[in-house]
């Protein structure tokens, strides 16, 4: 059995969100649902979410949990910072991953 090298593992991506609204709670729950490997840490006033390789925020999931229409541009109201590259940001989903 060989050990997995750091090169073989996908790089971690993540977002930090303000923890101040029902909208943010729905976004966090949607990210957890759509990214089963995500690790979520709740800090005072902040939610840190990390996942290997790729993080997806799907409009449809957020809307289902929020109980109202939600547009992906609303994500900007909750986000404090992210690491990775925004690979896709359209009306249906946001994808953060490393390009290299």
From TrEMBL:
It is an enzyme of class 1 (oxidoreductase). Keywords: Oxidoreductase. Its EC number is 1.14.13.7. SUPFAM superfamilies: Monooxygenase (hydroxylase) regulatory protein (SSF56029). GO terms for molecular function: phenol 2-monooxygenase activity. The keyword Oxidoreductase applies. InterPro entries: MOase_MmoB_DmpM, mOase_MmoB_DmpM_sf. Belongs to the TmoD/XamoD family. This is Phenol hydroxylase.
